[in-house]
Amino acid sequence: MNMMERLKFNDENILKFDIDGLKDVHNSISNIFEEFKLPKDKNKMVLLKPNLNNDMIALTGGTTDLRIIVSVIIHLKKKGHNNIIIGDGPNTGMYHGNIDVFERLRIKEIAERFDIKYIDFNYADSVEKNIGRHKTKIARVCYDSFFINMPKIKTHTEAKMSCCMKNLVGCNVGLNKRAVHWDLGKNITELNCILKPDLNIIDGLIAMEGDGPSKGTPKKLNLIIAGKNSFVMDYYISKIIGINNIGYLEQAKKMGLIYDEMLNVDDRYFIEKPGQHKIINFMLRNYFVIPRYWKIFNWLFDLKITGNLLAKLNIRQDSYDDKGIDVNLSKDGIIGKEIDDFCPVSLKISDKKFKFNGKCIKCMYCYAVSKKIKIEGDLGFFKKHEEIYSRHWKGII
């Protein structure tokens, strides 16, 4: 049963939902849109900004769950909002390597299926803003729309935690993301002062714990949480997962945006914290990272051995395999109905006569969690992800 809890911190409302299946996801999103009002103008552009930082599917804990994205689209359309756009700016490595994250995560297929648009912020029209002592460019659409921020609960070796506030880094165009990294904690806070979402819908279905976002592992929380104030939301999340001394939240305290007495949290969800990787974090500073994107060094960082080494050292999320997925899926035997809860577009895979056809978006969710889903073809980049995460997927159902 879908359990909803209403929390209030001063004037800020937060809704927390315990999720048990795809039906609960849809019920939660429906309740969220009843609590937090959408624009009266049905023609107003609604921007969905998930975490599409890399090409790791949501079941790794790496990106926003397609089940939530699709549910938000469906319920927006039910309320008459058809001017919907999905947007994000995948990380600088993906951008520099010309890897199409929107294709790999099947965002393109979802956009086509629901007749909406998508935009890669890395190539978007922008507005110039100051972040600390540096200038940056932020995708203009973030200011021109009703902005729904859709972050993932993740651990992060640099920032300690990634959720509402950290997710806005993806709104910076291309290599401008590095402007935030000159003083990560302070600049994330400053970014959230100049760019404020109208609503946050947090994906806590499959979170990431440990040494995220590169070497973290999936953690099943079965949560969806919604609210307006990004500072309060992240402070609440930090309390329930038990991560303290987060740089950008400490900066927000200094600015009077949040304070300790505002929260009395009883819920606790154990998450393994990121380790203390001082050498790696030192190497992630701009003085070392920015030269990686100079054209003179392209040959070096295009080498597969270099990519594998950087991934192994936890300096970047992936080796950036340039091969896409080219597979056909099929069933091998009777499949339990619980597998249906993993299909973002609600295909009834458990039906005896079900066949994978044009309706399947090949998101690989069902394949990840069921040994009875078989493939023919080339897994491409996903093969590496399967090698790393398959042992964790066994406990997700």
Computed CA radius of gyration, to the nearest angstrom: 20 Å
Enter the CATH topology name.
Answer: Rossmann fold
Helix/strand order, N-terminal first: EEHEHEHHHEEEEEEHHEEHHHHHHEHEH
Please tally the helical runs, counting DSSP H or I stretches of 4 or more residues. Answer: 15
CATH class bucket: Alpha Beta
Content-based structural category: alpha/beta
Amino-to-carboxy terminus distance: 16 Å
Indicate the mean pLDDT: 91
> Count of DSSP E strands?
14
Beta-strand fraction estimate? 15-25%
Shape: globular
Instruction: Report low-confidence residues grouped into runs of 5 or more.
Output: none
At CATH level 2, the architecture is 3-Layer(aba) Sandwich
- The number of domains is 1
- Profile the largest sheet: 10 strands, mixed
Helix content: 25-40%
Question: Would you mind describing this structure in some detail?
Answer:
The protein is of the alpha/beta class and 397 residues long. The chain has one domain: Rossmann fold (3-Layer(aba) Sandwich), CATH 3.40.50. Helices cover 30% and strands 23% of the residues. The strands form three sheets. Strands 1, 2, 3, 4, 5, 8, 9, 10, 11 and 12 form a ten-stranded mixed sheet that branches. Helix 7 crosses helix 9. The model has no long low-confidence stretch (mean pLDDT 91).
